[in-house]
Amino acid sequence: MDFKKLIAERHEYAQKWKERTGGKVLGWFEPYFPEEIAYAAGVLPVRIIAQHEPDALSDKWIYGACYPVKDMTNQFLLGRMDYIDGLVNVEGCQWIFNAYEVITNNKPDMFKHYLFLPDYTESKTSKDVLKSELLVFKTKLEEWTGNKITDAALDNAIDIYNKNRTLLRRICELRRADNPVILGSEYMDMLLANQVMDKAQMNGILEKFIEELESREPGKDMIRLMLIGSETWDSNLEKLIESLGGNVVIDELDNGTSYFWDNIFPQKDRMMAVGLRYLGRPRQPIKESNWRRRPAHIAALAEDYHIDGAIIAKQIYCHPHGTDNYEVWKLLRERNIPYHYFERDMFVPNDETTLRVEAFLNTVRAGITRLAGWHNTVEI
């Protein structure tokens, strides 16, 4: 499965989808976006993915923001995403909200909607607040598309998305093996492609991919790593790690495993069912409030996937992750898990990052942790 090609051709895919179905394409930024409601309206939800390229346009509108925000704005200003009929921003990253405002101000005919999702996700009133927000969003979509979002349409969308998440979890379980049949880079390409395609079609692709994975021979003996930090937009870091003898067997990224980790539990009140799923999903730092759940989730993943070390990659200017890192560092130190921390910018500096990751992997190889395979050659 050439998932990288699917990502590269995502614009053409969406345009052909529109021609084939006559439907509308709705762009989203944050993984807290309830795709099921848009899908039930006959809309194709696609994630806006940043690219690695400099630009000369976004500085006029956004100064000093992180590169994904500037790049996404640049792509819209260049007209590369003119096929997108609307944008939705969910309460979360302030930089992304700025991109949303700049894009929609420059394209006034575009459908736009701001969806509030409480930062205090465990508050007693959060579920009712989000349900009311989802009902407003549902009404706006019906007015925009002219399609009635029925209970049957919502049930169908929930079934398709739950199946998609189940298939992705099944692939993740294959990564728990001592020598996984899938590398972290291939997994990330698959996941990014999944976020820009029709989920019904993607489910068929994933089912065939699982058959392929189950027929593969076990992979090489590599250092098992966990990737923690800000959202990612490509698999470049995973490939760099693999070139040095490591393999990202699990991640905790907001658009990684956290994107699909929990299903929707159907109930008669569909909006409440959808809202509870998005309130209860693994949290990003900005949604951590009175009671911190993120460290416990990271710890559970670290144990389940038997990691030998962790890479923490924070997007520069990502203040929520910057303030949350002290909890992650504390957790990893308490559990004697080696980790390496660095910041990403417009481009990952290849030589510098290679040197730093290689030095980190060398400390792990020396026997700080008991690695699968390494204990046969290194006396511990």
Characteristics:
380 residues, 8 strands, alpha/beta, four-stranded parallel sheet, globular
The chain-level structural class is: alpha/beta
Question: How are the strands ordered across the major sheet?
Answer: 2-1-3-4
Average pLDDT, rounded to a whole number, is 91
Residue share in helix: 40-55%
Q: Summarize the main sheet.
A: 4 strands, parallel
Strand runs, count: 8
Instruction: Name the shape in a single word.
Output: globular
Order of helices and strands, N to C?
HHEHEHEHEHHHHEHEHHHEHEH
Low-confidence stretches are 370-375
Separation of the first and last Cα atoms: 40 Å
Cα radius of gyration in angstroms: 21 Å
| Helix segment tally | 15
Strand coverage percent: 5-15%
Written account of the structure:
There is one protein chain. The protein contains 15 helices and eight strands. The chain is an alpha/beta fold and 380 residues long. A four-stranded parallel beta sheet has the order 2-1-3-4, sandwiched between helices. Mean pLDDT is 91; it is low at 370-375.
